[in-house]
From TrEMBL:
CDD domains: MurNAc-LAA. This is N-acetylmuramoyl-L-alanine amidase. One of its GO terms (molecular function) is N-acetylmuramoyl-L-alanine amidase activity. PROSITE patterns: SH3B. Keywords: Cell wall biogenesis/degradation, Hydrolase, Membrane, Transmembrane, Transmembrane helix. Residues 36-98 form the SH3b domain. InterPro entries: MurNAc-LAA_cat, N-acetylmuramoyl_amidase_3, SH3-like_bac-type. GO terms for biological process: cell wall organization; peptidoglycan catabolic process. Gene3D superfamilies: SH3 Domains, Zn-dependent exopeptidases. The chain crosses the membrane at residues 14-34.
Length: 286
């Protein structure tokens, strides 16, 4: 570099700095404009929050069909720009999807983990006819609950969706890892002698996080299911004990009692359980 050129740079340092800053700003603005991804909001009344979780305060509302610009992703939530100069976080699972109704509730923001008890080489309890295994009916029930919750816009994760073995520790870990807003485990009771037990029970472990949810779910089960309701009880079960999320375990009746099993094995019963859980979770988040 010649002395003359170096002197020229020194004399025009300020102007050159301004030009460089302008070029860098132009580059990043152009990159942002062309790299931004837009998504379409899928429900009406989707709450925009100040952070990526239900615990953050509400900062706005966006409706179905609204195009928003994605700025950042975190824990299943999207930081978006909407209405030109508004910013906030919305659930990613409420974008670019089709729903069969228009109105959303806070349940639509939630992540729910459903846990069909047993599975694989762990059959669970057996019916009077021992070909009827608990694992079969817990999965059937959980799948209908999943369908009902997803119809309301909730993000639903299943600890198992097929007849496979999943350890108890892994079930609780899934809810903790995904910071689920609720965890519900489905089981069916068994008595030492056939036809000697009856009724459904809702169990919780952590009173502070889970008792209210257990009470809401049990109240709905009591009103919708024509079994002897055994109420809300404390239960020392690993899947709810090791859960840092609101968590409960439903024993939905006695699989080795004829009257109970007649209901457990029916589609109508499972539909009512799905309705009970959906209504209770809606109340819980409201």
């Amino acid at each position: 570099m010649t002395t003359k050129f170096r002197n020229l740079i020194k004399q025009n340092r300020l102007q050159l700095s301004i030009i460089l800053i302008f070029l860098i700003a132009t580059f990043f603005l152009t990159y942002t404009l062309f790299s931004d991804k837009t998504v379409r909001v899928s429900l009406d009344n989707v709450v925009v929050r100040t952070g990526p979780a239900l615990s953050y305060s509400k900062s706005g509302i966006v409706n179905s069909g609204k195009r928003v610009t994605v700025l950042k992703k975190k824990s299943g939530w999207l930081r978006v720009r909407y209405n030109d100069d508004h910013f906030g976080w919305i659930p990613s699972w409420l974008t670019n999807r089709k729903f069969n109704f228009s109105k959303a509730t806070n349940l639509s923001e939630a992540t729910i983990v459903l846990d069909p008890g047993h599975g694989g080489n762990d059959s669970g309890a057996l019916g009077i006819n021992q070909k009827h295994e608990e694992k079969t009916y817990t999965l059937k029930t959980a799948k209908l609950v999943q369908k009902s919750l997803e119809a309301k816009g909730a993000r639903v994760l299943m600890t198992r969706s097929t007849d496979e073995y999943v350890s108890l520790a892994a079930r609780a870990t899934m809810a903790n890892k995904h910071k689920a807003n609720a965890f519900i485990s489905f089981h069916y009771d068994s008595a030492p002698e056939n036809n000697s037990g009856s009724g459904d029970t809702t169990y919780y472990y952590h009173k502070k996080t889970s008792l209210r949810l257990a009470e809401l779910v049990n109240s709905q089960l009591k009103s919708k299911i024509s079994l002897n309701n055994r109420g809300v009880q404390f239960g020392d079960f690993e899947v709810i004990r090791d859960n840092t999320q609101p968590a409960l375990l439903i024993e939905g009746g006695y699989i080795n009692t004829s009257n109970d099993f007649k209901q457990i094995s029916s589609y109508h019963y499972r539909k009512q359980v799905a309705s009970a859980v959906t209504v209770a979770l809606t109340q819980f988040f409201e």
